[in-house]
Design goal:
The protein has 264 residues and is of the alpha/beta class. 36% of the residues lie in helices and 15% in strands. The longest helix has 14 residues. It is globular. The structure holds phosphoenolpyruvate and manganese (II) ion. Manganese (II) ion binds next to loops.
């Protein structure tokens, strides 16, 4: 079902007025984690003002260590839904377990599967029965074939609205947090009809690399981007402040993108 051989036309995912995979670039921006109503409201305002279409933010965070901040939970879903509605943005949030799919689907427009859960097959099966589009992140050590098979689980369950997200893979290089695999963009578009989104924030782990790798992703043909932005990255509640753009950097980057590709 994920293969272009059996489905030659591109899948276009329509949510409200936003079309993903239809030739216009979609930008999803926001913090790694939802922290407070004021934080997410202010960031939503800035994402909208910059020309973004989707507000990102994690209410449930898949942290590497069990003692790190794990997210604010269901309250965060409510805060983000309110901010999205108020500022006219769609919302995307990560869901980590099958039990939380229904509540996340109630509050968010798009559900994200994180890199660590790409092969959480129970979660993928549950998302196959859900009526929300899914952004599936590539496992940080998954091959393209494994990635497409993970998408296949969601499609096979009856949900046709899956986008693939390249978010960097693990290589021998330690300067960057991950190595953003730019080749994944054209490869996945050749092998599959599903939209391909690039995540230069987790793909590099370094703020100064987000702008060039965003532009490189657009040049490589990405259908959209998911970018971390925070009003006070140095004091953010996850470690991802170091890769989060400041609001003015985010706005300037989107202005540059308008020159490369039309925004929705
Ligand atoms: C995130 O988007 O904040 C996140 C945890 O991403 P990943 O699953 O790619 O690490
Ligand atoms: Mn993050």
């Amino acid at each position: 079902l994920a293969s272009r051989d059996f489905h030659p036309e591109n899948t276009v995912i329509s949510i409200g007025d936003v079309k993903i995979g239809g030739g216009e670039l979609v930008v999803m921006g926001g913090p790694c984690a939802v922290e407070s109503p004021e934080q997410i409201d202010e960031i939503a305002r800035l994402v909208k003002a910059a020309g973004g279409q989707v507000l990102r933010g994690g209410a449930f965070k898949p942290r590497t260590g069990p003692y790190s901040f794990q997210g604010v939970g269901v309250e965060g879903l409510v805060m983000m839904a309110e901010a999205g509605k108020k500022h006219g943005l769609l919302t995307i949030t990560e869901v980590m377990t099958p039990e939380y799919v229904d509540v996340c689907a109630e509050y968010a427009d798009i559900l994200q599967v994180g890199t660590r859960n790409m092969q959480n097959f129970d979660l993928l099966r549950k998302l196959g029965t859900c009526n929300r589009p899914v952004l599936l992140k590539r496992g940080f050590s998954a091959t393209y074939d494994e990635f497409l098979n993970a998408a296949e689980y969601i499609l096979a369950g009856g949900n046709p609205n899956v986008m693939l997200c390249e978010r960097g893979i693990r290589t021998f290089e330690t300067y960057t947090r991950n190595t953003l695999d730019l080749s994944a963009i054209p490869v996945l578009q050749n092998l599959s009809h599903l939209p391909v989104i690039s995540d230069p924030s987790h793909g590099t782990g370094r703020r100064e690399l987000v702008e060039p790798m965003t532009k490189a992703s657009v040049a490589a043909g990405a259908d959209g981007l998911i970018i971390e932005m925070h009003t006070d990255p140095d004091n953010s509640m996850t470690g991802d402040g170091v890769q989060s753009l400041f609001p003015d950097q985010f706005a300037a980057l989107l202005q540059d993108l308008e020159k490369l590709a039309p925004l929705v």
